[in-house]
Predict the 3D structure of the following.
Amino acid sequence: MNHIDHFIQQQSAKSAEFAAQANQTAINLDVAVAVRKLREEKQLTQRAFGKLVGKPQSTIARIEEGRMNVSVKVLSEIAAAVNKKVTVQFT
């Protein structure tokens, strides 16, 4: 475990609010990586990808930067536009 993970673990134990925010940030970053990977597989710019999925480029940018809590609905719309499906996993 690195120093950042250790810090997050310690702070999460002290504060439920911190733990919730840290968890949401981790989810946002996982989604960011997945959406960017999908866009790059399609060899599209953010603008072209946004047009394909019916979202503005700014929304794609916010998703890829991990600054947006993306709903399952939006993920489903993205998936449908590129003939993919969304799966949910509990680990």
Remarks:
- Residues 16-41 form the longest helix (26 residues).
